[in-house]
Design goal:
By secondary structure, the chain is α/β, with parallel strands linked by helices. The chain has 8 helices and 7 strands. Strands 3-2-1-4-5-7-6 form a 7-stranded mixed beta sheet, sandwiched between helices. β4, α5 and β5 form a beta-alpha-beta unit. α2 crosses α3. The longest helix is centred in the C-terminal third of the chain and has 17 residues. The structure holds ligand GEK. Ligand GEK binds next to α3 and β2.
Length: about 250
Amino acid sequence: MKDDPDTAPRRDRLFAKPMDNISGFVFDESVASVFPDMIRRSVPGYATIISNTGLLAARYAQPDSRCYDLGCSLGASTVAIASSVRDIEYELIGVDNSQAMLDKCKQHLATIAIDAELRCEDIESTEVSEASVVVLNFTLQFVQPALRAELLKRIYAGMRPGGILVLSEKIRFEDPHLQELNTDLHHNFKAAHGYSDLEISQKRSALENVMLPESISEHRQRLSNAGFASIDVWFQCFNFVSMVAIR
Ligand code: GEK
């Protein structure tokens, strides 16, 4: 079925027309306005990761602690936490450095009566303290690799013993064959969800120097260096994973 942008304004068509110059991807108003459709059709397993982030939060959230959604966008994980962690007192904090995202997130949370503090800040500098749950769902990949170790050490230092970090990322494979296979499968996934070859390749160019995926072993090593005790992948679909790291 073809989409009519006039009748389906929330459909992501941002890269549908040929572009002369493809500038680096930014989380502006145009992205925020199509974001739920964009991420659902771009990230295999997204809905599964978000709903199970709620289940993980419910298991690890501690009374009188804080739960953080770092890079919260429109608040999908914030909502998953709020819906699953119900019987204890805690503070829920969403952080994003895109005002366009946070404006829409705030509206959405108000509509469904979810009480969360929203901070328009860089996650590299936002304060994390007394945390029992920290979620980084598809956000670390946008942080400069040289800053990632320091960020994870700071998150670890701001967590309570027994707390959980949920880290979801696009990954790269060290084996070239697997890298090619999973890149192709991701491309196939996007095509099956209605993106044209042009949209896929223009979006890939826009993300080229903005989103920088790493391998699972690089993530494991960094989490371990930061001090996390138990680390594993709990979900993978093609080149997308979600990991847990327990302090
Ligand atoms: C979800 N977690 O729906 N500081 C703060 N925010 C940042 C930074 C930074 N340094 N860099 C990027 N962001 C969400 C999806 S999207 C993932 C997360 C994607 C923000 C950025 O503004 C955007 O809202 C979010 O991180 C990444 O599960 O689009 O692939």
